[in-house]
């Protein structure tokens, strides 16, 4: 009898240790890097510009067109060297394991984390670094891939994606749980990065670029901008966005009140250290102004950059702005005073 009791205790201890092991493993799996940003630059500013460039140490990592398909290039901004973000010279950059390979499905913008950035596609969330890549979460994140090829977005702990039933699903990718579903939502066709999670609220654009926000607790949607909102970002607790038609940039309180125009025309814009950097057309001129649209300075002039501007990127720890060209064949950097520009051309 006593022997059976010991066996039972041993079995219980064994079962408990198994339970602990599996829960320990689960805790490890949810250890996903957090989105980082600095007070000096706008929150979501780089993602709202298409989310195609991030800074990792002294390197810029950006999406460029190679001979066959878009891949990640890493640019050594100290030694002025540009190459695929992959250390294997024989690699064709077509496998999921390759840190230059992005995805076969539509992907999210690049979201900055410590020492790298996150990118989500239809099935996975990856952390990329300099010549490195690891999967940090997997699940089912939507397959539509319409509207500029971008369907899903990463914001805080959440991944958002539109479904064929015209709903927006919000999933916590750390737990793989759907935390909210919103009806009457079709993707806004005005580009990537039109979703952000800030101070407890999820902001996103739907349908004809209507900007809404929700606290995810009660599931109620508050309409902030009735239509035509794009390039949403937050700087010093105020919301900035552009009008999809007029391209005017507006600043408002986080609930959308007190909206006022600050820039007359901006195809792309971004904010750093109290100044707005913008290009009125797809290029090639770039200007800066203060947060009220005054004190306008021209950084680059017509003819400097014949390929046009495809997004303006700013980082807290460097004195240049980076911009990709419209056709993703090159990346330029220009000092914030408009001097010392450099060009990097993508080659295999
Ligand atoms: Zn490779």
N-to-C span: 74 Å
**Total beta strand runs:** 28
Share of helix, binned: under 10%
Mean pLDDT rating: 88
Largest sheet, spatial ordering of strands: 1-2-3-4
Give the full name of the CATH homologous superfamily. Answer: TolB, C-terminal domain
Q: Based on CA inertia axes, which overall geometry fits? A: globular
**Rg (CA only):** 22 Å
How much of the residues is beta strand, in percent? Answer: 35-45%
Tell me about the largest β-sheet: 4 strands, antiparallel
Structure characterization notes:
The chain is built from two helices and 28 strands. With 348 residues, it is mainly beta. It has a four-stranded antiparallel beta sheet with strand order 1-2-3-4, with no helix packed on it. The protein has one domain: 6 Propeller (Neuraminidase). A hairpin with a 6-residue loop joins β27 and β28. It has helices at residues 2-29, 45-48; strands spanning 53-56, 59-65, 70-76, 81-84, 111-113, 116-120, 124-129, 132-138, 153-155, 158-162, 168-172, 177-182, 195-198, 201-206, 210-214, 222-225, 229-235, 238-243, 249-252, 260-263, 268-272, 275-279, 286-290, 297-300, 311-313, 320-324, 330-335, 342-345. The radius of gyration is 22 Å and the shape is globular. It binds zinc ion (ZN).
């Amino acid at each position: 009898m006593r022997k059976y009791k010991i066996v039972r205790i041993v079995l219980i201890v064994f079962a408990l240790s198994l339970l602990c092991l599996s829960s320990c493993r689960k805790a490890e799996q949810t250890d996903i890097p957090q989105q980082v940003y600095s007070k000096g630059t706008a929150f979501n500013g780089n993602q709202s510009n298409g989310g195609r460039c991030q800074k990792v140490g002294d390197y810029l990592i950006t999406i460029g067109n190679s001979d066959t398909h878009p891949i990640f290039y890493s640019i050594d901004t100290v030694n002025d060297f540009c190459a695929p973000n992959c250390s294997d010279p024989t690699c064709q950059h077509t496998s999921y394991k390759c840190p230059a390979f992005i995805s076969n499905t539509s992907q999210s913008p690049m979201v900055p984390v410590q020492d790298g950035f996150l990118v989500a596609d239809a099935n996975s969330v990856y952390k990329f670094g300099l010549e490195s890549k690891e999967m940090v979460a997997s699940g089912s994140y939507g397959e539509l891939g319409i509207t500029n090829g971008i369907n899903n977005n990463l914001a805080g702990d959440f991944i958002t994606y539109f479904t064929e039933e015209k709903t927006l699903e919000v999933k916590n990718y750390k737990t793989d749980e759907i935390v909210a579903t919103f009806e009457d939502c079709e993707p806004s066709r005005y580009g990537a990065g039109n979703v952000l999670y800030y101070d407890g609220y999820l902001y996103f654009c739907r349908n004809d670029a209507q900007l809404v926000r929700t606290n995810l607790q009660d599931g109620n949607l508050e309409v902030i901008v009735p239509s035509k909102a794009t390039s949403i970002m937050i700087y010093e607790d105020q919301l900035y966005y552009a009008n999809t038609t007029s391209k005017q940039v507006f600043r408002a309180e986080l609930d959308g009140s007190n909206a006022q125009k600050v820039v007359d025309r901006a195809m792309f814009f971004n904010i750093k250290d109290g100044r707005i950097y913008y290009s009125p057309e797809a290029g090639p001129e770039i200007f800066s102004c203060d947060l009220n649209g005054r004190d306008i300075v021209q950084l680059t002039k017509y003819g400097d950059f014949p390929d046009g501007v495809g997004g303006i990127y700013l980082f807290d720890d460097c004195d240049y702005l980076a911009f990709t060209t419209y056709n993703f064949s090159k990346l330029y950097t220009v000092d914030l005073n408009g001097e010392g520009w450099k060009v990097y051309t993508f080659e295999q």
